[in-house]
Each structure stands twice: as C-alpha cells, then as structure tokens.
Design goal:
Number of strands: 4
Strand order of the largest sheet: 1-2-4-3
Distance between the termini: 34 Å
Shape: globular
Order of helices and strands: HHEHEHEHE
Helix content: 25-40%
Largest sheet: 4 strands, antiparallel
Radius of gyration: 16 Å
Length: about 170
C-alpha cells in the first residue's frame, strides 16, 4: 500500500474481530517499522513490549481508562521511552511518537487496525503500567497500541485546514 493511501486510511480502531490473532511475524513487521522512525541524533530512545496474552490485554483494558478496546484486540505494543539515551536529551516524546506513528501506518498497510492510547504523562497510568510490565526508572511506559483485525470502520476525521497554515514566501 502506498504511503498516501495508508495515511488516508489510518483510523483509530476500537473494536476488533475475535479470534483473528496477530502473529509474531506481524508483530515483528510492526516493530521493524517502528524502529525505522527518525530520532534525535539517532538516539533511538525506545524499547517495546509486544503482548498477545489474553489476560494481559484484559488487564491493560482494566488499568487504562481509555484502552477498553484491548478487550477485543488480539495484541498490543507498549512503547517504552528511555529519556536519558544520549545527547541531545529531552527529545524522547517526539522520537517515541514517530515510532508509534510508523506502527499505526504499517498496521494499515498490513490490513490490521490499531489505536494509540497515551500513558505518559499521566502519573497514575504510568505507575500502573510500570507495575504490570516491571518497567524500571528511568524508563517510562509511553503508550499502548491496541492491534487486531478491525471490526468497525470509523469515518475519516482528519482533514486539511488552510486557515491553520502560515506561508512564508
């Protein structure tokens, strides 16, 4: 699938077909796309936790107030930020967001659906994910991405807004 088509077709999927499992090979393809993302000075301040265990997906849905879609997802990827991964420091939110967007676009190209659920900077949610996945400081659970075969087709919400652009010519 070409990039423009993936961009136009990307949606936040919140309902997945039961029994349509995401394979380890598919997860590797998604994670490979994540690791192709740009990062400040190529610091790559990220790690990933790939989840397919049903009980853990249900626990994610329980502890994250906006990740109820994990009840029907058959996989999730937890993006873990590493804030002190070299110089320059402080760019890990942008870097991890770029990796996340790559996962979302790769999911579309593979016929999968995904939904980005922020964890950081909500202290309570960060603490819950630290406990669930044994993520030690200084690492930070950044977000959870629910993944599966879409069982809904939400309409397009993004659009171009000319009034939000300033051209300097």
């Amino acid at each position: 699938m070409e990039l423009k088509l993936a961009l136009e077709n990307r949606r936040s999927i919140r309902k997945y077909k039961p029994g349509k499992l995401v394979t380890k090979e598919q997860l590797k393809q998604l994670l490979s796309a994540a690791m192709l993302a740009p990062s400040a000075c190529n610091t790559r301040p990220w790690e990933f936790v790939a989840v397919t265990r049903r009980e853990t997906l249900d626990e994610i849905a329980r502890i994250h107030p906006y990740a109820k879609m994990c009840e029907t997802a058959t996989a999730a990827i937890i993006v873990v930020a590493i804030p002190h991964s070299g110089k320059p420091e402080g760019y890990y939110p942008q870097d991890c967001a770029a990796a996340t967007q790559n996962i979302l676009l790769e999911a579309v190209s593979m016929g999968l659906g995904a939904c980005w659920c922020g964890i950081y900077p909500r202290a309570e949610t960060v603490a819950s994910f630290r406990t669930l996945f044994n993520i030690q400081e200084p690492k930070i659970p950044f977000n959870a991405i629910a993944i599966g075969t879409p069982d809904d087709a939400p309409g397009r919400r993004g659009f171009f807004e000319e009034e939000k652009v300033t051209y300097i010519e």
